[in-house]
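Write out the 3D structure for:
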Amino acid sequence: MKLTINMQVSVDGVAQGNGGPEEEDLRRGFRRGGWARPLFDSEAMTFVNEFYDRADAFLFGRRTYELFADYWGAMKNPDSPITDALNTKPKYVASNTLTEGRWAETTVISGDVAAAIGELKAKKEGELQVHGSVSFARWLIENNLADEIALLVCPVVVGEGTRLFPDTGPDIALDLVDSRAFPKGITLQVYRPAGCPRYAT
């Protein structure tokens, strides 16, 4: 399976709290949640719906899995491609604390998570998508498990919050494989990791 990370980020790279003010974020002092939602026009939403629809399976970190299970798992909207995809397709959650998933079609991956994800990618065909899960997405990138990174860059500077790429981390060359702009200013950039960058001398 091709492992694709889909992330909404601000121009300054923040990925935290894009959808709204989450309770955990508020407890941690982050009060700028919901910065992405007002910027999504119908064309951008069509792209998001089609992205979810093309998935063959989903992969989550534990916290995002629980947030999605509580929200999307409880939603019964037959007109929503996102709801339909998330509630009917296989889901994998990486966790050493969960023993079983509480959402239909869930498999818990524990122990040597990197090896388990590598085996999953090698055994199955199709696309394995990661949405949100900032810390987990960082870990996947650092462990060379991400095949593509699709960034929806929103025209806003949030000014604080967790960024997809930390201040100190691995250096990675990226090949741009797709890009487009949407009417309200969101831009899509799809990258494939391409080894180490070349530096000028």
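The first helix runs from residue 23 to 27.
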